[in-house]
């Protein structure tokens, strides 16, 4: 048992152990993503303070994710034409500037709701390029063999920050107000910018993009042709689209859960967000130890995510909400890590930016409508109604995907590249 544990532990940290460039980038991201989570909860709390409306928090999500809906497909094509490391440097610098502007307005006492909405929208525009570029950069940092491990470690970083960032953010909001959270986030971007400058370009895995760079029309035609050839990728994207739209609206629902359902303040808001993040961190580390992309685990995580939300819906005490949010977070990273790795491994180099652009659109593109819907459901029937609808939707999508994969699997192969994705 001890030997098995040691082997699993080595697999968990394989990408960090083997790749200097990835270690440096990962270290910078630890600081920056923690700051981003502090800003996320501070922005939601500030909007709720200014408006006293759950729908207004949903509109904040609309502003942040609408650019992905409008420009997400274009972003993937553009990333396939650009140097991905330099692209990430530019997008991270832009996000730092937007955080600094929001900090200045808030600390200066001049902030209005429209300021928060505008700067969230501008950050959303930068993320249209940032998300597919960072995914492509991860492939270049570690290569195909270690990619599932690195994707899971990225999730562990993101969700570790989801634990620490909201807890720190809740404490900072309670002590000094949301403006200080925005300022700390702006400073935190220095860490990732320094790490990107320290990466050695000569050690990056080269991408076989061919000689001709894609135009927008031809580039998107090639991306959708890939989905037609690889039905597994199409099903994964469809599940991600529907579940993130209908079931993953925690940025909207958690502040309402803390303030209205539990009748608590920003400190408890930080705690409930951290409970979800702690579960998500454990799920990411489990995925890193497995170190392979598994469609079955992807759908198992999606179904468990829906069940946990249904169990969460009627709860009104922190003692019940905390453990259920932990389980929800664990299931969340099981399906997101496996979805991400499955798509990256199935995509050829010259299409990776576009495929991950489609993933970004699926993950965030319908978020504006989902966020407003979640806010409306919470305003109408409280978090009980909102989480009930979310959990039911996730379960329904899981059942539909299982049926579709079973039917396609009997008629023809699913189309994943041999030896890259485990069923």
What can you tell me about this protein's structure?
- The chain is mainly alpha-helical and 423 residues long.
- Helix content is 84%, strand content 0%.
- It contains 15 helices and no strands.
- The protein has helices spanning 2-12, 14-18, 20-51, 54-79, 84-107, 113-176, 178-198, 216-229, 231-246, 250-261, 266-290, 295-312, 318-346, 352-365, 367-411.
- Helix 4 packs antiparallel against helix 10 (250-261), helix 5 (84-107) packs across helix 6 and helix 9 packs parallel to helix 14.
- The longest helix has 64 residues, at 113-176.
- It is globular.
- The two termini are 26 Å apart.
Helix proportion: over 70%
Mean pLDDT across all residues, rounded? 86
Q: Which band does the percent of strand residues land in?
A: under 5%
Shape: globular
Order of helices and strands: HHHHHHHHHHHHHHH
Radius of gyration of CA atoms, rounded to a whole number: 20 Å
Q: How many individual β-strands?
A: 0
Low-confidence stretches: 416-420
SSE blueprint:
Layout: H1 2-12, H2 14-18, H3 20-51, H4 54-79, H5 84-107, H6 113-176, H7 178-198, H8 216-229, H9 231-246, H10 250-261, H11 266-290, H12 295-312, H13 318-346, H14 352-365, H15 367-411
Helix pairs in contact: 1-11, 3-4, 3-6, 3-7, 4-6, 4-10, 4-14, 4-15, 5-6, 5-7, 6-7, 6-11, 6-13, 6-14, 9-13, 9-14, 9-15, 10-11, 10-15, 11-13, 12-13, 12-15
């Amino acid at each position: 048992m001890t030997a098995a544990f040691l082997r699993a532990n080595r697999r968990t940290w394989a990408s960090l152990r083997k790749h200097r460039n990835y270690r440096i980038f990962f270290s910078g991201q630890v600081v920056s993503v923690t700051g981003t989570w502090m800003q996320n909860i501070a922005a939601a709390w500030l909007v709720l303070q200014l408006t006293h409306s759950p729908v207004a928090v949903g509109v904040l999500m609309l502003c942040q994710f609408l650019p992905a809906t409008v420009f997400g497909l274009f972003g993937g094509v553009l990333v396939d034409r650009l140097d991905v490391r330099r692209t990430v440097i530019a997008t991270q610098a832009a996000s730092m500037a937007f955080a600094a502007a929001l900090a200045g307005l808030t600390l200066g006492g001049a902030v209005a709701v429209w300021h928060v909405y505008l700067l969230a929208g501008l950050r959303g525009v930068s993320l249209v390029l940032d998300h597919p570029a960072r995914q492509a950069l991860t492939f270049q940092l570690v290569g195909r063999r270690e990619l599932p491990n690195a994707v899971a470690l990225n999730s562990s970083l993101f969700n570790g920050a989801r634990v620490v960032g909201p807890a720190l953010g809740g404490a900072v909001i309670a002590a000094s107000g949301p403006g200080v959270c925005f300022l700390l986030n702006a400073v935190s971007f220095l860490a990732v910018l320094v790490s990107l400058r320290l990466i050695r370009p000569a050690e990056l895995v080269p991408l076989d993009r061919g000689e001709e760079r894609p135009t927008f029309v031809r580039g998107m035609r090639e991306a959708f042709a890939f989905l037609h050839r690889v039905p597994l990728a199409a099903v994964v994207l469809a599940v991600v689209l529907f579940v993130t739209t209908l079931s993953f609206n925690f940025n909207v629902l958690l502040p309402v859960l803390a303030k209205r359902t539990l009748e608590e303040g920003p400190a408890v808001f930080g705690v409930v967000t951290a409970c979800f993040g702690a579960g998500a961190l454990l799920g990411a580390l489990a995925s890193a130890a497995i170190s392979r992309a598994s469609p079955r685990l992807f759908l198992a995580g999606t179904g468990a995510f829906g069940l946990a939300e249904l169990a969460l819906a009627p709860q009104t005490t922190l003692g019940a909400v905390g453990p259920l949010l932990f389980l929800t977070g664990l299931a969340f990273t099981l399906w997101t890590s496996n979805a991400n790795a499955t798509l990256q491994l199935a995509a050829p180099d010259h299409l990776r930016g576009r495929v991950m652009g489609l993933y970004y659109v699926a993950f965030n593109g319908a978020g504006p409508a989902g966020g407003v819907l979640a806010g409306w459901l919470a305003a109408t029937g409280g978090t009980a109604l909102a989480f009930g609808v979310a959990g039911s939707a996730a379960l329904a999508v899981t059942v539909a995907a299982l049926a579709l994969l079973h039917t396609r699997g009997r008629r023809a192969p699913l189309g994943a590249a041999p030896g890259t994705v485990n069923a």
